Amino acid sequence: MNRPEAQPLRLVPLELELSFAASDWRQDPVGLCRGALAAHGEPLRWAITAAEVRPGHQQWLRLEAVLLVP
Amino acid sequence: MTAELPTILLIPTGIGCDQGGYAGDALPVARLLAAASGCLITHPNVMNGASLYWSDARIQYVEGWSLDAFARGALALRPQRRQRLGLLLDAAIEPELALRQRQVFEAAGATLGLELGPLISTDAPLGVSLRLAESGSSWGSLERPDALLRAGERLRQAGATAIAVVARFPEDSSAEALQAYRRGSGVDALAGAEALISHLLGRHLGLPCAHAPALAPLAPMGELDPRAAAEELGYTFLASVLVGLSRAPDLLPPGQGPLPGDISIGQVGAVVAPAGALGGETLLSCAARGIPLIAVQSNHCLLQVGAEQLGLTVLSAPNYTAAAGLVLALREGLAPRALLRPLPPLEYLSG
To answer: Which helix (H) or strand (E) holds A15?
Structure first.
């Protein structure tokens, strides 16, 4: 595995709040989180730091992350 | 004995875990779970006790970015008897402190018999900074990731198969957070930035990597918490990193292998994590695969991201001793519910 970096990389912190249908959340929790983070850069390290199941079968999350951004 | 049950032990770094939030103080837990499972996969935060370490052929030492990729099925692990170690030093480290690091490296060869490869200093200071996020978790950043990656590439080209990184960390020995950590409360302020460094290098090189901070020695403290004491025994935190990396598994991208003895996520039979810290990528990947999750109630941390908050089904263990019992039950093919009293009722499906 080698990843030649064409451009200098920056590390950028990000906090996001997200909400998903609980049924979607159970199917692919990582894909949903990574997909939301990918809109801002490549997720290098992330974690859910707050969560709750909300009325209407909604899964609410707060993510903290550091992203790689060219 | 029944065949081994590969088990992942997670204790996220930088969130103030009662066990594993200090200086390798989850090592007894790792040893217990390695014995119960026969094969434990865990990360440097669990194993690194600065000058103190424990080597066990049943424990696979895998840094966090690679562990996430393993759980997604993007990597497999190939256990190794030894790795050829490279040492990467941040150019910001003062000469005397850098000399201490090099001497630990040499001692690991002379005293422990580890295979030493090349060493290098970065061509620019890495510029490590520390930060606490809104949750109170420790994070951090790096001004010059490019310098880190260039140095890592040179070590790999020179034959290193695993890389130990030592970066100069900012310090304020009088800081309230540091004093609280030494007394056994609060968060390891360095941990988040350490994880970023090893994640970045592991992602770039595809080699086992781990990090030790370079810090000036602290004045002795009488009321030092035993869990933090391993970091005050010497001049560096490097010895445990070198020992961990010396038998870290190779990281295999898809399409390589498998050979007998390789470990893939499909073989993992359990994941053990603090009950309030279930929101990491490795754990969620395992949950989606239906791998049993063992949530340890006694390992409190500053997060409250548990099974209830995430809608997950877990096996609850009051402490790590009970978690080891559950791992052993799973390894033996016992249904954990059969060990409970009263027995849970049967589930009748309507016709």
So the answer is: strand A10-21
